[in-house]
């Protein structure tokens, strides 16, 4: 991401520190997501509680990044690559904060789910979780290494997440129609899946920001969109897809 | 101020090219100071020239109204064309060219005369006014355009050199526009001014763009970004990159431009 060193050495140190805090925040968001998904899969409420409690740490890092970015903008008046790096960090931090929020929400729902008996295992949730976790990991690697190709590959994977979400949506609808007693549990599962799907969208945002930071260009092409559930109604003759 | 320098007025290719400059070379004795520069200046735009000291930006600026003629060892080749006319052609009257292409310098340099005389001098020697009332009108109009009228209209007889630095610089701008130029060249016009006086000049530059074409040399990246619509980066006598100001400052194409504007060399 950087060509040569700045004439003012402390500026380089500050930019490195900014990147480090963002990477650190990314690592934390990633482990929050991992913990949340594990707590659903293993029905582990203790783990879920620790995920919920750890969300403040992510928020604290975001505050730190916000303050640091404002300071850099005021004191350094950055230009070109430096400006994109700093603004990019600010926006990536806000995506990471959302990711961690969704992870905490997944963990909260895990606690609720664990209070009821396991009705039917839903395999798609861990699979979706694993896919999105890999996206987060890769997009953070792409950020640290300024790797545009890797960012692009993350961006392309979001469609797969959307497709999994669509199939899970239909599956859960079927369960709910079969047995009204499962509605409570299935609704929680549906929200969990939706949260994971949203996390995938934020990983896609970050991929776009990495691309912009490194190249100065917006990522070309229409965003992969596979989530059709917002236009789907159950019980329709075509099987639910509008 | 005005965001990315695109200001309140129109911008873009709908405006004709005011000056077209091709293969401009400048030699100071043996030294090759400017190397084959092709750079156009669009009408009613502010074009900023940036680059490290000694890069040739001021040399280029001074070619645009033949100010380099005053340096004995200086030799200029190439084409510098103002509205289709080569300003270095034999039949050209240099004094007329400098009236059409005015200049404002780094350090405010009012004449040691009254405020009124500072502005009236040019129109008088160029015969632009028939009689005192017309000259008065030119003086007040120029001072108004330069944003100085309200501060000096009750003391036009006082010495121009008695004004503050920022006022002196605006007086010099009033003096430059009094002869109805088409292009105004500014060589670091704010480097000797405080931030408030600088802001007033920058605001004025944006206003002047409606009527004039402006080329400005500045060492302040932020100033170039604020006041100009086009930016040209010079390095070691070469024009490295020229383009839309916003692009130059957010996503320059050339590594050298990037290095300079981000403070990595210079």
Describe this structure in words.
The complex is a heterodimer of chains A (242) and B (266). The longest helix of chain A is centred in the middle third of the chain and has 35 residues, at 80-114. Chain A has 242 residues and is an all-alpha fold. Chain A has a single domain (2-241), classed as Phosphate transport system protein phou homolog 2, domain 2 (Methane Monooxygenase Hydroxylase, Chain G, domain 1, Up-down Bundle), CATH 1.20.58.220. Helices cover 77% and strands 0% of the residues of chain A. Chain A is elongated. The model of chain A has no long low-confidence stretch (mean pLDDT 90). Chain A has helices spanning 9-41, 45-76, 80-114, 124-145, 148-178, 183-215. The N and C termini of chain A lie far apart (44 Å). Chain A has 6 helices and no strands. Chain B has 266 residues and is α/β, with parallel strands linked by helices. In chain B, the strands form 2 sheets. Chain B has a 6-stranded mixed sheet with strand order 6-7-8-3-9-10, sandwiched between helices. Chain B has a 4-stranded antiparallel sheet with strand order 2-1-4-5, covered by helices on one side. In chain B, a hairpin with a 2-residue loop joins strand 1 (17-28) and strand 2 (31-42). In chain B, helix 3 (115-125) runs parallel beside helix 6. The longest helix of chain B has 14 residues, at 132-145. Chain B starts with 16 loop residues before the first strand and ends in a 5-residue tail after the last helix. The relative contact order of chain B is 0.19. Residues 1-5 of chain B have low confidence and may be disordered. The chains are: A mainly alpha (242), B alpha/beta (266). The A-B interface holds A 3-8, 11, 77-84, 216-217 and B 221-222, 225, 249-252, 255, 257-259, 261-266.
């Amino acid at each position: 991401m950087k060509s040569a060193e700045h004439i003012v050495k402390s500026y380089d140190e500050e930019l490195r520190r900014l990147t480090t805090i963002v990477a650190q925040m990314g690592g934390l968001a990633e482990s929050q997501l991992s913990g949340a998904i594990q707590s659903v899969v293993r029905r582990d409420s203790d783990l879920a509680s620790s995920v919920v409690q750890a969300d403040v740490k992510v928020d604290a890092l975001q505050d730190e990044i916000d303050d640091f970015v404002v300071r850099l903008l005021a004191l350094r008046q950055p230009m070109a690559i430096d400006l994109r790096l700093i603004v990019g960090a600010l926006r990536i931090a806000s995506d990471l904060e959302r990711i961690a929020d969704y992870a905490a929400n997944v963990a909260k729902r895990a606690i609720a789910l664990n209070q009821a008996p396991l009705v039917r295992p839903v395999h798609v949730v861990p699979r979706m979780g694993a896919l999105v976790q890999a996206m987060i990991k890769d997009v953070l690697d792409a950020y640290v290494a300024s790797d545009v190709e890797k960012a692009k590959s993350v961006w392309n994977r979001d469609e797969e997440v959307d497709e999994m979400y669509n199939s899970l949506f239909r599956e859960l609808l079927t369960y709910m129609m079969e047995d009204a007693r499962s509605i409570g549990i299935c609704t929680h599962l549906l929200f969990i899946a939706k949260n994971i799907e949203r996390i995938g969208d934020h990983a896609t945002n970050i991929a776009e920001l990495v691309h912009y930071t490194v190249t100065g260009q917006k990522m070309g092409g229409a965003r992969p969109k596979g989530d059709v559930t917002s236009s789907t109604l159950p019980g329709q003759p075509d099987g639910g897809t509008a | 101020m005005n965001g990315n320098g695109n200001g309140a007025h129109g911008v873009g290719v709908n405006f004709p090219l005011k000056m077209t400059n091709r293969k401009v070379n400048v030699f100071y004795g043996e030294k090759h100071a400017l190397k084959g520069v092709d750079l156009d200046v669009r009408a009613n735009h502010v074009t900023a020239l940036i680059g490290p000291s000694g890069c040739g930006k001021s040399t280029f600026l001074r070619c645009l109204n033949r100010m380099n003629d005053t340096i004995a060892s200086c030799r200029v080749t190439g084409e510098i064309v103002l509205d289709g006319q080569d300003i270095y052609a034999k039949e050209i009257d240099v004094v007329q060219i400098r009236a059409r292409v005015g200049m404002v310098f780094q350090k405010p340099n009012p004449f040691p005369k009254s405020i009124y005389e500072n502005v009236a001098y040019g129109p008088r020697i160029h015969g632009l006014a028939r009689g005192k009332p017309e000259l008065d009108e030119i003086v007040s109009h120029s001072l108004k355009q330069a944003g100085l009228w309200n501060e000096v209209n009750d003391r036009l007889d006082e010495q121009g050199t008695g004004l503050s630095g920022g006022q002196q610089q605006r007086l010099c701008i009033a003096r430059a526009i009094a002869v109805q130029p088409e292009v105004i060249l500014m060589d670091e016009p704010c480097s000797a001014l405080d931030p408030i006086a600088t802001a007033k000049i920058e605001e004025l530059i944006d206003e002047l763009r409606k009527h004039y074409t402006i080329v400005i040399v500045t060492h302040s990246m932020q100033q170039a970004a604020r006041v100009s619509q086009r930016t040209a980066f010079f390095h070691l006598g070469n024009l490295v990159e020229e383009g839309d100001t916003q692009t130059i400052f957010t996503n320059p194409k050339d590594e050298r431009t990037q290095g300079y504007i981000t403070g990595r060399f210079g």
